[in-house]
Amino acid sequence: MFYKIIPALLLMGFSAVGQEPKMEWNPDHKITIDDFKAPQTTIGPAANAVHVQSGVGIEFALQMNNIEFMFTKNFNPKVVCTFQKEAATLTAPDSLKAKQLIHLIQYDYDLSELYTRKIRKELYENKKTFSNVTFFQPYYDKMIAERNAASSKVYAETDFGTNTLLLEEEHKAVLKEIQKLSDYCKVCKPPKKGKKQE
């Protein structure tokens, strides 16, 4: 059986313009087969390969003038983890493998939210009043590289979700880390300097 896994599609743009609607990360959303809207999605003998494309993205939408940028410290609303159903594709020979892949994508979806929060934290802690508009690039690139490495490691170590117990452990660890970064949710205000953080 040929396995083809395409990890999360990570995007960076200066505007949130897209032709297809994207769903922002929601802690209560559990990904199901119905979320894979790409026409290539197939489960059953017709699927001649195991393939998944997550439809998950991390987007940075920066739309402000120089004065606004100079005095903006909180970029939480500008960095968003999204799931694009029309881009999400899954092919599997049976429902068991499909279920394993769905759990893997749920992990990737939540992992991407974790790194979205890490990006927000990096931007908040490193933005200075006279920072150049490109100041975010090294922090963004660093977090995306870390996210991709973490994702690839779990994809490999769980054999693309086949090791369900290990995947569940890794997923629980990600959810715990998301909670630790609760000040960096999209609508949250990061703690002022001096406030003790864990």
Q: Would you kindly provide a written description of the structure presented here, covering whatever features stand out?
A:
- With 198 residues, this protein is of the alpha/beta class.
- It is 38% helix and 14% strand.
- The chain has four helices and seven strands; from the N terminus they run βββββαββααα.
- The protein has helices spanning 66-71, 95-126, 137-157, 164-180, and strands spanning 2-6, 23-24, 42-43, 49-53, 56-60, 79-83, 89-92.
- Strands 1-4-7-3 form a four-stranded mixed sheet, covered by helices on one side. It has a three-stranded antiparallel sheet with strand order 2-6-5, covered by helices on one side.
- α2 (95-126) packs antiparallel against α3 and α2 packs parallel to α4.
- The chain is elongated.
Brief summary of the model shown:
The chain has 198 residues and is α/β, with parallel strands linked by helices.
